[in-house]
Amino acid sequence: MKPRLLIAAALASLLAGCATSPTGRSQLMVVSDAQMSQMGLASFNQMRQQGKFANAPKERAYATCVAKALVSVLPPPWNTQQWEVQIVDDNTANAFALPGGRIGVNQGMFKVASNQDQLAVVLGHELSHVVARHGAERVSDNMAAQAAVTAGSIYAGTRGADAGNVAALLGAGATVGVLLPFSRTQEAEADTLGQRYMAKAGFDPRAAVTLWDKMEKQGGGGTPAFLSTHPAPNKRAQVLGQQAQQLLPVYQQARASGHSPNCKM
Asked: What would the pLDDT profile of 182-211 be if each residue is shown by its tens digit?
């Protein structure tokens, strides 16, 4: 196949996979939910085999209670999926949710998230990454970047240029210009969706500002928005505070209609 046809075929296969996120954002999606679930389950099982999960029944029951309340308000099919929660033997403040219905909460997270509302901020954020198919989007983005590098190398070869140098430049361009901006967008989207889900589940959305402020202080300051995978701390707090005020009626209605989680450790 001629180089130009090879390039066109590679790009066409990528452009064919388009999707829309829960907030209406266009996404590149060339892997299926089933494939992502297999990857998520494999990663979680590997952690289990490596003995990374702690024997912490109280923490696990508490985190499961919060997760269950959040899952109940997720859109289908995630609200009907069986989610397993495990506590990770790690003192850093972190948590994750994986396609396939798996959640991990580091033991260090409980030192920062001091009540159910603050833990709901973290778990709502992580569950939102799954609902918005951010993992699949990242895999798809990486495939697109690799295809661009390959296509650029082929084209450079046909033009008599140094293919290695062109590939290096395209690789850097793909990393800075495509992948990281998507990641920042995904983090902001997970903030928005997570706060929405926690309010619908009966958790106070105002806890988001408090939690991320505590996370920033624990980390010794935030990373600038440029080339960061998370929004800048000041901007994040401002946006979350505005969204919290907008979501207060949703939270109050949820509590009035019986969504009143009472998760304690």
From this structure: 477 888 899 999 999 999 999 999 999 999
Residue numbers annotated as active site: 126
pTM of the full structure:
0.77
Question: Is residue 225's pLDDT more than 60?
Answer: no
Give residues with Cβ within 8 angstroms of 147, minimum separation 6. 10, 11, 14
* 104 DSSP β-pair partners: 86, 96
Spatial neighbors of 82 by CB under 8 A, at least 6 apart, are 101
Place of tokens 């495990």: 86
Distance CA 103, CA 97 (A): 4
Residue with token string 């970047």? 145
Q: For 50-79, write each residue's pLDDT tens digit.
A: 999 999 999 999 999 999 999 999 999 999
Amino acid identity, residue 5?
A: L
Cα–Cα distance measured from residue 59 to residue 81, given in angstroms and rounded to the nearest whole number: 22
Cα angle: 210, vertex 211, 213; to 5 degrees: 65
Q: Which two tokens stand for residue 248?
A: 């207060």
Q: Where are the beta strands (DSSP E) in 24-69?
A: 26-28
Q: For residues 77 and 99, is the Cβ–Cβ distance under 8 A?
A: no
